[in-house]
Amino acid sequence: MITDPPPPEPAGTSRRWSGLLRMMTARPRRAGPGEHMRTLSIGRRIVRVAVREGNPDWPPLLLCNGIGASLELFQPFVDALDPRRGVIRFDMPGIGGSPAPVVPYHLLTLPSLLTGLLDQLGHEQADVLGISWGGGLAQRFAASRPARVRRLVLVATGPGALMVPGHPRVLLRMLTPRRHRDPGHAARIAGELYGGSVREDPALARDLLHATTTRLGPSTGYYYQLLSGIAWTSLPRLPRLRPPTLILAGDDDPIIPLINARIMHRLIPRSELVIYHGGHLELATDAERMAAIVEAFLTAETRGTQVDTASLPVSGFQLGPLGLGYCP
Fold first, then answer.
1. pLDDT tens digit string along 186-198?
2. Residue 286 lies inside a defined structural domain of this protein
């Protein structure tokens, strides 16, 4: 495990603003330069997709988002990635620009959606990154379609129903999409819900959620996505995950307590755990630092069955005899 300690505050604009300022100055939010939007019909679902073409010798990075968030949430992170890296983003049915499905869906059925997405875009394999709810989808896809996933990145996520939950008051906030629709409410609950950088400045979460919400689908889509994980857990299958896996977890994430990342790291055979200083939204609010870690993992050489993570751009870490590290 690698632990990334709190970085010193640089002079001038703080690091946590870098990704958010990049996003906010690029309004209105659409696909970035070199990207194009597509609407695909996959099975009986219609999905809005943003595709950034990249080096054809590299597998694309497929991004799976959290509950209620449209694909634009990833824009600061995508902008911070190597411009040669192909990126695929999509809105879940009923979220953003994807129409709501006629009937609810469950995580168990969703690997076919990702398989169809990659098939239609002409990719046999992808690197897959999932954040929060999207991390559950990424785990499910990697477990059921291992040949389609080269490397797996799990950010601010847990193993589903069998996990150590956040505080009940925090989880109650997740039962409604109000934060995506009411900027004032988003700012009021941001620190309690997301932790990390937004504790100091709740406007970060307000501006992020409402700068990226170019399209608000019906509330039905949010509730379908929320309910899709009922009774699902990846826990029994984690020891059989085949792709090399990077787990990124914040030391101040009220939604997904850090202990869940430690459990997943112990169970996933080819995993590396990086603990960053921050909360649930740092992939967007500190995009440059997070993107550098992900890029290093995706490009690291494989030695035997393990990815060489010696070059991961994190500072001041120690490795213990069981792979558990601590930085004073």
1. 889 999 999 999 9
2. yes
